[in-house]
Amino acid sequence: MTKRILSLCWLLHIVNVALAAKEKGLVEYVNTLQGTNSSFKLTRGNTYPTTALPFGMHTWTPQTGKNGDGWKYQYVEKTIRGFQQAHQCSSWTTDYCVFSFMPVTGKLVVNEDERATGFNHANEIAKPHYYKVELDNNIITEIAPTERGAHLRFTFPEKASSYLVLDGYTGISALKIWPAERKITGYVSNNKNNKGDLIKSYLEVVFDKPFKSYGTWENRKNTVQQGKSEGAGEGIGVYLEFREGETVQAKVASSYISQEQAGVTLKAELGKFKSFAATKAAAAEIWNKHLGRIAVEGSSEEEKATFYSCFFRASLFSRQFYEYDKAGKPYYFSPYDNKVHEGYMFTDTGFWDTFRAQFPLNAIMYPTMHGRYMQALLAAQQQCGWLPSWSFPGEGGSMIGNHAISLLADAWAKGIRTFNPEEALKAYLHEATNKGPWGPSNGRHGFKEYYQLGYVPYPEYGEATAKTLEYAYDDFCAYQLASSIGNTYYKNIFARQMFNYRNVYDSTSGFMRGRKLNGEWTPNFDPIEWGGPFTEGNAWHWQWSVFHDVQGLINLMGGDTNFNKKLDSVFSVPNKVKVGTYGGMIHEMTEMVMANMGQYAHGNQPIQHMIYLYNYGGEPWKAQQHAREVMSKLYNSTEDGYPGDEDQGQTSSWYVLSALGMYSVCPGTDQYVIGSPVFNKITITLEDGKKFSIDAVNNSKDNVYIQSASLNGKPYSHNWLTYNDIMQGGRLAFTMGNTPAVNRGTALDDKPFSLSKQ
């Protein structure tokens, strides 16, 4: 009888565990601390623990760094000095329209260094829908987000004084306290747009408890004006005192349009929630539904945590930059012309990173939003005269290339046709034949020489070979778009230039190289030397940036055998570095050496597609093996979760797509190249309710090789899927094994798109 009871108890335990796992909200898998153990010298993501809704206009984070420091939150730091409204998409840029709250007990302290309070990660919860920390002084801070605001709760220790400090950050601010209404209004402005004009974020904060006392202060000399209800100028903030031991809730909303709109947003987004718990529950429901659009089964709990943490991070960018008026219609303040327009606008992304995977992932998961984004690109061009390349929030022109055309051509190729392609091509031609005032990718460095010589010369232009390669790809995208609409004028222009990658390939060395104005190769070439004609990498990394014509690259390199050997060599040559024009070890170099995968530098974008090129060279099983190796070795769900910068969702999107078993090697076409899925079963619920499932029978850490495949019940040997294959719903089935299937997927028709293959 005892054995039977024990067996029954064990059975009930198993059932309960299974039910608990089933009921576990997907949001609980997400760790927003993923990638926060970063510094100037070594990046494990360069992230901060973001609390926000998907693509929300404002995000919130605890702040360990000084005001204005790009490293807002570093895992190794021991104190928190504020809880910020934040927008930063890279630690290498300063944030805009920031303000913060800091609860203080004991005596009133406003100085950001002196008010900083110790904390322990054991007392921290960091989820997309909910952040909580108990500081060492026993103050508890909690945050739950809406799209343009947040609900905060501060719990002060019993019988202890209860102050809340609002810091106006690094720019100018104007704030007013309304004691009778228990409210703060005003604006902060701590960054300028590309035209040098200040961008204001109007805020409204409503509290549920009365103020015992209040005043203003400024953060330059940290002087306090007790009893003063308003102030304006540099670094103006306010403070509030509440009853001792109080628990205080604050509802916050911000608008770039007006003070009135901040109030409209506060009422619309937070007015319906009577308690903090209700706001938190609503945010959890939104995230669970969002993350549930991709349901994964099989594999370990850690792999699920890594997947959903990456999916979360990929779902933050690009950020909404529009608001809803009283009638519920979208409109926005444009950071490009400082005017208010009807419709949608998005920001906080750098296309040099995100054209590769983040936007191709969005095209699958959120085609309606993606279509609006294409409209916003052309609206931005009309408002400032240039297609954005790095919007933060206006055009910054950072990095290289003109990749807005990649987004537009990719959307069109996939049937997302919400914009005028003639306008897109006209805008791109202007981009490709001019140089704008805002950074290297606002227009083109060396556009005249590129057109006349077929390459950008070095050293006349820094990063010249990298620019040549990316210009050629962008020209292909314009060619694709022009071809699809039958516009021979633009087609002929860009047909001439999209093969320019050939002009920087040196057959003697077998690498892409810097080339001088007179046609000679730059001397003293070493493929492991960083910088010079390359961007954040060396010749080993930039060899492969011919997204649109991999077959053409194979031909240059002497055929499949030589091509595949060169791919193999990336992983087998020593992981040595010559710092080149950088003059010292930059974090990307350090991360490549730490990865110990030869010259493979996954922590930066130029080489992230390279693994999938084995599909073009007739050895797809190597793509399958390497993709799984990179996912298991270089990603996890912890504070050390990334192999380098998590750039505006790109590095996360690489993981999400790769875990699904595919990758977007050449945006501008409708193809996703096949790799090896991590999970036994994946079900993607598309925007229209259709489902596309990916089943991997016998999948495991050892069984990474595809033995056979079928699509909707029919044998499938291609190393690629089309966008339509996915979007019409269906089932892709793999049988996996632990040895390569060397005869599968090797026919010419099985290779993905290349210009030279057509």
From TrEMBL:
The keyword RNA-binding does not apply. Its EC number is 3.2.1.-. It comes from Hymenobacter volaticus. Keywords: Calcium, Glycosidase, Hydrolase, Plasmid, Signal. Residues 1-20 form the signal peptide. Transmembrane segments: none annotated. This is GH92 family glycosyl hydrolase. Residues 29-255 form the Glycosyl hydrolase family 92 N-terminal domain. Residues 261-738 form the Glycosyl hydrolase family domain.
